[in-house]
Amino acid sequence: LEGPPVGAQVTLHGTSPGEVAAELRRSEPFWTRLKDSLGETDCAERLVSEASVEALAGKLVLNAAGISVPGVGAGGKPLQAAGVFVLLSTMNHSCSPSARVKTTSETGAEVSILTTRELQAGEPLTLAYVSPELPVSERRQQLLGHWFFECDCCRCEVESRLEAAVAADD
Question: What is the rounded distance in angstroms from the CA atom of residue 98 to the CA atom of residue 113?
């Protein structure tokens, strides 16, 4: 799994990797069982170090896919969850995606990838990491903030040029 670029700050919903690492070391019986299973405290310390937690969190944040499982949440509502699915984590983004993800209605543990249009042989399958309905500036802001890249797909380039042309005419 790919992690964030060096120096990038990953947000963990209001907590830091250091706080998570400290909490893991305080958690019993987790901490004792981890040390016992590894056979040494040094190895356990490295495994739950701030750097290790930050690297793992970054990989999870960048590669987890949000899923909605209909009918299994409280009161029959959809359950919102996330998972790391090997095939999905290898797929690139496009604001004009060639595929979409569908989860099974029973558990959500199984995903299907469905094409959104007819594809040419060899054309890559891409997903929209953010809503394609957003304006180009918002899509790019969300992609940069969460996935650490500025989208340069054909759609973003065309929309950016159109916005610039309209602004120049004003």
Answer: 10
Whole-prediction pTM value?
0.71
Q: Considering only 5-9, 17-21, 153-157, which range has the smallest mean pLDDT?
A: 5-9
Query: Residue 159 is which amino acid?
Result: E
Q: How many residues does the chain have?
A: 170
- The Cα 57–Cα 45 span in angstroms is 17
Greater model confidence, 159 or 17: 159
Residue 16, token pair as written in the block:
């830091």
Whether residue 83 contacts residue 64, with contact meaning beta carbons closer than 8 Å, is answered with yes
Q: Which has the closest alpha carbon to 10: 46, 47, 64? A: 64
Q: What angle do CA 11, 13, 18 make, to 5 degrees?
A: 65
What CA dihedral angle connects 14, 20, 22 and 24, to 10 degrees?
140
Per residue in 78-133, pLDDT (tens digit) is 887 778 888 888 899 999 999 998 877 666 667 889 999 999 999 999 999 999 99
Closest CA to 128 of 93, 82, 101, 155: 93
Residues contacting 23, CB < 8 A, separation 6+:
none
